[in-house]
Amino acid sequence: MNPEKTRKLLSAEREALICESLTGGVKTIAELSSELKVSEATVRRDLESLENSGAIRRVYGGAELLRKRNSEPLYEEKAAIHPQEKTTIAEKAIQFLKEGDTIFLDGGSTVLEMAKRLPAIPNLTIVTNSLMAAAELMEKKHRLILVGGEFRSLSRTLVGPLTAKILENVSISKAFLGTIGFEPERGISTTDPNEAFTKELVMKRADKVFLLADSSKLAVSSFVFSGNASDIDTLITDSGISPAAVKLLKSQNIEVIFS
Amino acid sequence: MNPEKTRKLLSAEREALICESLTGGVKTIAELSSELKVSEATVRRDLESLENSGAIRRVYGGAELLRKRNSEPLYEEKAAIHPQEKTTIAEKAIQFLKEGDTIFLDGGSTVLEMAKRLPAIPNLTIVTNSLMAAAELMEKKHRLILVGGEFRSLSRTLVGPLTAKILENVSISKAFLGTIGFEPERGISTTDPNEAFTKELVMKRADKVFLLADSSKLAVSSFVFSGNASDIDTLITDSGISPAAVKLLKSQNIEVIFS
DNA sequence: AGCGATTTTGCAAATCTTTGAAAGACTTTT
DNA sequence: AAAAGTCTTTCAAAGATTTGCAAAATCGCT
Fold this sequence. Notes:
The structure is a homodimer.
Chain A: H1 11-22, E1 27-28, H2 29-36, H3 40-52, E2 56-59, E3 62-65, H4 75-79, H5 83-94, E4 102-105, H6 109-117, E5 125-128, H7 131-137, E6 143-146, E7 149-152, E8 157-159, H8 162-167, E9 172-177, E10 181-183, E11 187-190, H9 193-205, E12 206-212, E13 224-226, E14 234-237, H10 243-251, E15 255-258
Helix pairs in contact in A: 2-3, 5-6, 6-7
Chain A binds a DNA duplex through helix 3.
């Protein structure tokens, strides 16, 4: 895997190699010990350290990588996935904005495209939990409110129960949400429970909920669901969505708009 | 890697070379020592200096690069006015941090320096209203909570009554505040009433309040005052402050620490 | 330039960490 | 319930770090 024959490895290096080696699945202590050419005692100590830094989980006889279930790509990678669809969806969504609206902008790269293109609509108040969107909007002259909360680095959003403290005190006319997965039957789903909590709260508080999701998100589902499909008023998507799905959505009173 | 055969390197040059050399991953002290042709003791001292300027992390036996110079910064930084004083004040302030603390970081360039240098103290929770600080801390692995509220673009902080919603729900052991002006008689003052509101609230909620202010801030006063001087427990400043001011502060039970 | 003061550097002794091995406690399997 | 394997604890040795000190380099001042 990695020669590094020359010198002894530092514990930091060993830990990195262990994580790398664990991507192939579970490994026993004996396997790791012979891969790294250190004693089993040392492997155990490394695993203990990795475990309480949250990277892995120890199982009897070995260890497994933790953050692997339905793993969410890193922030930079995500933006690159369907850039064309994301842009056209964002442009379509902007057409729904009206003077005097108080809108909520969620995290995710599709909604971020929206923030980047936000035109100079008079008297617009923007509420967001996305630090990326906030960075885009900073220089513009709209009124900008961030909901507080716990920072989640993977999505660069503020999530969790603390977000309720502010969301409960503002009134939102239109919310624009992104998602990891969306099933017409069960609604939107995410990897993180705190993120799901905040999305659900926003859906409850907003007069009108727009979901921005390119067709690759359809029929994908992740770990935690937020509310259910009927909490969404309008889905803005691209033409890759199946006619059957459209029919199912319309039967639930969800408007489908194509970019 | 780099010849530079002619003369001895200055420590600043060595430190730059160390960082460059570390981009390839972890390095041992012995490797760095032979690369730079200096003794291991010197390498250790350089690493110590680099570590508490926040650039690298020392691991037993060597060091690794901490913040890989990744994508362009989320927020552009304004040039600081007294960078040297601010840095040393920030470094002094960091020494007050303990394992398990929940700290508040205010806006302003001095406190921002603190955020940049924040070491890997276990179990540290950071609450902040500064988007600049949040951007710095994003990549690190501390628990990070943003108070929500209205965004004030001049200071890039979240301010106003909405900040109370979250501040009232967290308990802060140590708060580190910046300010525009500070008078020993009347306390800290700012240009914006919303900003003043938030500072005042933080001072009420924190167990211990540290004010980080270089001596140019002393005896300057701005528009709105937050609380009064006695709300501050400790002032961290530079040696430019007058002995009379120190005496006045001590008479109000405010500890004065020099960077 | 010259001289003293300050800082930086390298070395070595003392201290602290990490490592591997072995004994005993605990889990899983038969 | 016994056997086999795995985990935790303990200890000594090897290696790394810190600290104190003296030599060298640098700086500041006349």
